[in-house]
Amino acid sequence: MSVVIYAVYRTTASGNEPVGYVTNNIMWDGVSNWAPGAGFAVVADPDRLYPIGSIYAPAATSATKTG
Known about the structure:
By secondary structure, this protein is mainly β. Helices cover 0% and strands 34% of the residues.
């Protein structure tokens, strides 16, 4: 199995972090038993388009840097 970088992003807003806010980048094979937790989701990001602090939107073609 090969590992890929994934962006962990919010599916529920919290404080100053809106839906889509990327909170972490992880290395994961995409199949091992792991879940990001309630209020979060992951997206494969091998090209590092979604660094921590950016906003991920499924229909978007690029991330927006915040802060």
